[in-house]
Amino acid sequence: MTHTFLLEPSSWIIKGTWLDKNQTSYPFQGATIITWDQANWFSIKTKIVFPKSDRDGISYEYKGFLPAKKTQYTYVLKRSDFEKIEGEGWLSTDSIIQRYWVLGDNRRLNGFETFFRLDEDTYHLTSGMMAGNHLYNTLEGILERHG
Questions:
Q1: Looking at CB atoms within 10 Å, which of 14, 71, 89, 110 has the fewest?
Q2: Which CATH superfamily is 10-145 part of?
Q3: Residue ranges of E strands in 6-121
Q4: Quick one: what percent of the chain has pLDDT higher than 70?
C-alpha cells in the first residue's frame, strides 16, 4: 500500500484535540484539500475550528516540491497565526514526517508533524510545536478521506 495522503489530490476531514502548554485541551474539526498544480508541486490547504471554544480557527497553506521518484521534499507554509514557515518532509513506509521552523521568531519556534497511515483512507496525525527545547503545543487527530 502506498500513501494516499499528500501524494494524491484529495480532500480530508480532520477531528482531534489541540493542547497548549499549561492549558485545557480543545477539541477541533476541520478539512484539508490537497492539489497538484504542476509537475512535482503540491498545495495543501487546511482549516481547523474549535467549536466548543471562543478560540479563533487556524488556516494552513502549504506549497511544496517533491522531486520525481524521491522520498524527501521541501515546503513553505503560511499559517493564520504565523506568516513565514519553512519545512522539509520525508516519506517513509507507513508515515509522512514533516519538520518546520518559524522564520523571524525570537522564541526559536519549530515543530513536527507525523501522518501515520492506518489504511488508505485514514491517517493519524500527531503534531507539536516547540519554543527552543520546550514543548509549546500539540495537536492530535484523525484524517479521513472525503472524496
A1: 71
A2: Calycin beta-barrel core domain (2.40.128.20)
A3: 10-20, 26-38, 41-49, 58-65, 72-79, 82-91, 95-102, 109-119
A4: 99
Q: Which residues contact 12 (CB under 8 A, 6 or more apart)?
A: 5, 31, 32, 33, 34, 123, 143, 144, 145, 146
B/e letters for 95-104, b = 16+ CB within 10 Å, e = fewer, are bbebebebee
DSSP 135: E
Annotated domain spans of the chain: 10-145
For residue 2, is pLDDT > 90? no
Given a cut of 70, whether residue 1 has pLDDT beyond it is no
Ramachandran angles phi, psi of 40, nearest 5°: 75, 5
Residue 93 and residue 71 in contact, taking contact as beta carbons nearer than 8 Å: no
C-alpha cell at 75: 515546503
Please provide the average confidence, as pLDDT, over all residues in the chain.
94
Tell me if 77 sits within 8 A of 87, measured CB to CB. yes
What single letter denotes the amino acid at residue 115? Answer: F
CB 47 within 8 A of CB 30: yes
